Amino acid sequence: MNTGQLRRYEHALLAIFGLLWIGLAIAPMKRSDWLAENLLVIALLVVLVTVHRRFSFSRLSATLIFVFLCIHEVGAHYTYAKVPYNQWWQALTHAPSLDQLMGFQRNQFDRLVHFSYGLLLAYPVREALLRIVPTRGSSSYFLAWSLILASSAIYEIIEWIGGAYMGGDTAKAFIGAQQDPWDSQKDMTLAALAAFVTLLASAGINYARQRDFALDWALRFRS
Asked: Which contacts qualify for 42-48: CB closer than 8 Å, 24 or more apart?
């Protein structure tokens, strides 16, 4: 894919996300929680748009980031603890609720998003690292995994501080612990586990093909 095609693809993803964002910004379940959940999203988008001419992700990485942000926006619209995936499941399958089938005792959408964070963003993180850090081979995979785990921990700290500052029902919705005292630890574990799966699969594919696709992309931008 040449630069022009990549730019058009990035613009298409940004336009689609913008439409989704606007649609989900209309009458969210709780405006204050929606605003809190979107602060980091807006900051990330500003950074990506600002640097995209000098720091473009591959088409795969751009797609993975796009999918994660879309999933996050669904959670932000409903508040994570109230995403009606059970109703969606029953409408599609006419079966009992998904929580009932799986034996879940709480809404699991926030768990899905934390798992998706590691699963979908580990590859883009490694791709970015290969461009800005002199790392190769197994160390690049470990560093990418470490960054996913560290950023997950930072997010949990932000949730804690933000929740303590906001207080009341807004804090409960933002933190989304749903009465689980180990919520933060489980969220970080899911992100780390999912990142491990993605990076292991990436390493396996690279080994089988005898080619590091993320490194190839990074080297395109080296002078």
From this structure: 44/69
